[in-house]
Amino acid sequence: MATEPRTNALSWDECFMRIARTMAERSKDPSTQVGAVIATRDNVVVGIGYNGFPRGIDADKFPWEREGELHETKYAYICHAEENAIYNANADTHECKIYSTLFPCNECTKALIQKGITEVIYEKDLYHNTPACIAARNMLDAAGITYRQYICDWE
Fold first, then answer.
1. Which residues of the chain have pLDDT under 70?
2. pTM above 0.90?
3. How does pLDDT run across 30-58, given as a tens digit for each residue?
């Protein structure tokens, strides 16, 4: 009797999105937790990240507010998950793909383009109609970078 290989192994999309979700759990942001994973075309992880303050910044000494003057909100200080995945990359990201639990903003999209990312796979698109996400899609289209939503089927 021959043994057959498993047919229910995780797909690469599911595997990397699960890792991105786990990374999101590292975030101390009380309102939005985002995780990201950069992988090569051969499905080797080269970078991971989550949204949080830069290294060495005490998260308890800076604001987590969403409204107010810029310097009084988290937005002046937070590094996004996609940025951190790039900063943490241990290999060249040219022709890699990124998995993110949230569609990237325009600032992260610029960094992804500059680092040679060729595909964006995201889980949620909560800010679809905001200027930042409209600009992100415009840049992704202009750069020829494919993007698609990953629909979770394990929950």
1. 1-2, 154-155
2. yes
3. 999 999 999 999 999 999 999 999 999 99
| pLDDT for 67 | 96
Q: In this predicted structure, what is the pLDDT of residue 36?
A: 98
Q: Rounded distance, CA 35 to CA 26, Å?
A: 8
- Cα gap 30→35, rounded to integer Å: 14
**What local confidence, expressed as pLDDT, does residue 155 receive?**
63
65 noted as active-site residue: no
What would the two tokens of residue 151 be?
């629909």
Long-range contacts of 63-70 (CB under 8 A, 24+ apart): 64/28, 64/29, 64/30, 64/31, 66/31
Quick one: which of 53, 19, 50, 58 has its CA closest to 33? 50
Query: What CA dihedral angle connects 97, 90, 138 and 18, to 10 degrees?
Result: 50
CA distances from 7 to 2, 3, 16, 31, 64 (A): 15, 12, 18, 38, 45
**Among residues 4, 14, 82, 83, which one is catalytic?**
82
Token couple for 33: 């937790």
Question: Which letter, b or e, does each residue of 41-60 get, where b requires 16 or more Cβ atoms within 10 Å of its Cβ?
Answer: eeeebbbbbbbbbeeeeeee
Amino acid at 107: E
